[in-house]
Amino acid sequence: MVDYNLLPYQKELQDKAVAFTKEHITPYAVELDKADEIPMDLLQKAYEAGLMNLHVPKEAGGPGYNLLDETFVSEATGYGDAGCATSIMCNNLAFAPLMVDATIEQLQKYIQPLITGEKVKLGAFALTERNSGSDAGATTTMAEKQGDEWIINGRKCWITNAAKADLFTVFAQTDPKLGYKGIAVFMVPKDRGVEIGHIENKIGQRASNQAEVIFENVHIPEDCLVGEVGKGFHNAMKTLDKTRAGIAAIAAGVCQRCVDEASRFSITRKSFGSKIAKFQGIGFMLADMQGRALTAQQTTRYAAWLADNNMRNSTESAIAKVVASDNAMQNATDAIQIMGGYGYAEEYGMGVIFRGAKLLQIYEGTNQINRLVIMGNLKKRAKTLNTGFKLNYEGIDAPDHTWAPQ
Ligand code: COS
Question: With a threshold of 0.85, does the pTM exceed it?
Answer without folding.
Answer: yes
